[in-house]
Write a structure and sequence with these properties.
The complex is a heterodimer of chains A (about 300) and B (about 230). Chain A is of the alpha+beta class and about 300 residues long. Chain A is built from 9 helices and 15 strands. In chain A, the strands form 3 sheets. Chain A has a 6-stranded antiparallel beta sheet, covered by helices on one side. The longest helix of chain A is centred in the N-terminal third of the chain and has 14 residues, at about 65-75. Chain B is α/β, with parallel strands linked by helices. Chain B has 3 helices and 11 strands; from the N terminus they run βαβββββββββαβα. Chain B has helices at about 10-25, 185-195, 220-225, and strands spanning about 1-5, 25-30, 50, 65-70, 85-90, 105-110, 120-125, 140-145, 160-165, 175-180, 205-210. In chain B, helix 1 (about 10-25) links the parallel strand 1 (about 1-5) and strand 2. The chains are: A alpha+beta (about 300), B alpha/beta (about 230). The interface between A and B is medium-sized, with 15 and 23 residues.
């Protein structure tokens, strides 16, 4: 069991940025009974000074400072310029001016042992850690971050280990801003992963949910629309899943053919909120509006 | 009548209070439930309970006797394993409403999610709107009445019982078949709907078990050696 949630302020273009961090923490904390071993969020549509927001995490065994220094050197060598950087324990957040190829940047950064890339986005970032939503909020000050939309996850691990790497969301390496949170288990994970690896795709963890991110990255890079990629995934992925995806300007969900994992949505003219349970929607939607429950094999997207 | 504000209480405290008040034959109103789980679970006597707002999972489940009215939506497994009593839900129910229900009546004013009436063993489930995937899955007894459309695989692997569908049937499940509905049955169904304030008189179709998966007479190989 896991809990997922997503929110989009559809008019944030005209009305200004919305408290996405606060909303996601509130929604996830209300579903903490669905999983409390790790939590994570993607906040999208942030205002940033550079071209890219890079989120790096350094493994406990590695020398943090040395790796962080080498990362900044790597970015500079590739023609990037660091506008801003902040360090929170083993987590590094960089605002970078960069006009080069993101795949090359990601590959160069990942040559360092012990370094993991949680996300590269033009206006989004992934923050994930072990612990409950409120405890990771107190470490990473998520509540203060504003944006246009985002997704979040509370995890109860069933298929892979409990640590920061295996927490959600998963970034669709090397596709900027595309991240995924998933509730369920994929049964064709190993065969699909092997075939993607043969095609040169990169996996950072052994979590089956990472496959969905790579799958979507592959589809989107070949020109599929987000909605089409989600619909195709319902046929191609096997097992139980309800997942949410966040892109630079979009939010979407897909639900498996068995309708095995829950999802409910509420939508007004201004906001769409999505979550595993209505209890989370009630934290952000004060009006008494209709709740919709997507059924089997359904996919849906909202674009800003 | 006593009003309980659910937002002031933990679910355990709320359920203890509901049981205490029910034992005193008080009418109970619960306000501000905020779609939390397990509200009104395990009430084993007659009681009148009104819940103003949406409830989460397993609302009014494991109950034997009460009449519960919920003004809002319900999450998964509303009325799970109900023995007797009545639940009236004004809006939509999540998946697995009336799962393993044994008796009594559950009325859903809106739509129901997937697996409505899964493994039902008695009682009546009435849905004012549509139902989702696998309605009446492995149903063993009882009656499901759907005024609107059903999802795919209705009555999949059902043993006994009847599923009446007023609208479109998504598809029949494995070992389910459509059977004639008599005029007497129709009148009985319409009366049932009228008791819930539904004036429409749909020409229901009935789905029952084709019983082709019944293999009770064939013994396992090991069992044969024992005879």
């Amino acid at each position: 069991m896991c809990g997922i949630s997503g929110i989009m302020y559809k008019r944030s273009g005209e009305k200004g940025l919305a408290p996405i961090g606060r909303d996601l923490v509130n929604m996830l904390q209300s579903m903490v009974h669905r999983g409390r071993d790790s939590s994570g969020i993607t906040i999208a549509g942030e205002r940033n000074e550079g071209d890219l927001i890079i989120r790096i995490w350094v493994d406990d065994c590695a020398d943090d400072r040395e790796i962080l220094k080498r990362s900044t050197d790597t970015i500079t060598t590739l023609g990037g310029h660091i506008e801003n950087s902040s360090v929170q324990g083993s987590f590094l957040r960089l605002d970078v001016r960069f006009a080069g190829e993101i795949r090359q940047l990601a590959e160069s950064l990942l040559t360092q042992r012990g370094l993991e890339l949680h996300s590269i986005g033009k206006s989004s970032e992934v923050i994930k850690d072990v612990g409950t939503p409120s405890s990771i909020d107190s470490r990473h000050s998520i509540t203060a971050i504003q944006g246009t939309h985002g997704i979040g996850h509370v995890r109860m691990a069933t298929e892979s280990r409990v640590d920061i790497s295996h927490a959600h969301p998963f970034w669709a390496y090397p596709f900027p801003d595309v991240t995924v949170v998933h509730n369920g288990q994929l049964t064709n994970y190993h065969s699909m992963k092997r075939s993607y690896e043969d095609q040169g795709h990169h996996f950072q963890t052994q979590n089956d949910s990472e496959l969905i991110a790579v799958y979507l990255a592959e589809k989107l890079s070949k020109g599929a629309s987000l909605n089409h990629a989600l619909e195709e995934s319902i046929v191609d992925l096997d097992g139980t899943f309800t997942y949410l995806v966040s892109t630079e300007n979009g939010l979407g969900y897909a639900k498996d053919q068995w309708s095995a994992k829950p999802l409910v949505t509420m939508e007004t003219e201004d906001v769409v909120a999505i979550a595993s349970e209505e209890v989370a929607l009630r934290r952000v939607m004060s009006q008494e509006i209709d709740r919709l429950e997507p059924q089997e094999s359904e996919a849906m997207t909202w674009l800003l | 009548m006593v009003t309980l504000n659910a937002s002031d209480l933990s679910i355990r405290e709320l359920n203890v209070k509901i049981k205490e008040l029910a034992a005193q034959f008080q009418e109970i109103t619960v306000v501000d439930p905020q779609a939390r789980h397990n509200i009104g679970v395990g009430i084993l006597q007659h009681a009148t309970i009104k819940i103003d707002g949406s409830v989460g999972y397993y609302a009014a489940s494991l109950m034997d006797g009460p009449e519960v009215t919920i003004n809002g939506n319900a999450g998964w497994a509303l009325g799970d394993n109900m023995m007797s009593g009545k639940i009236t839900l004004t809006k939509d129910a999540g998946a697995s409403v009336a799962s393993t229900m044994r008796g009594g009546e559950i009325f859903v004013g809106g739509n129901a999610g997937a697996r409505a009436g899964i493994s039902m063993k008695g009682g009546t489930l009435v849905i004012g709107g549509n139902t989702g995937f696998l309605t009446g899955f492995m149903m063993q007894k009882g009656k499901i009445i759907i005024c609107g459309d059903s999802g795919e695989a209705v009555g999949d692997s059902m043993y006994e019982g009847e599923i009446y569908i007023g609208g479109k049937i998504g598809s029949l499940g494995t070992d389910a078949k459509i059977e004639e509905v008599s005029e007497e049955e129709l009148i009985e169904l319409w009366n049932e709907l009228e008791s819930h304030g539904i004036k429409d008189k749909p020409r229901f179709r009935k789905v029952v078990s084709a019983k082709k998966l019944y293999h009770y007479d064939s013994l396992e190989r090991l069992e044969k050696t024992l005879i």
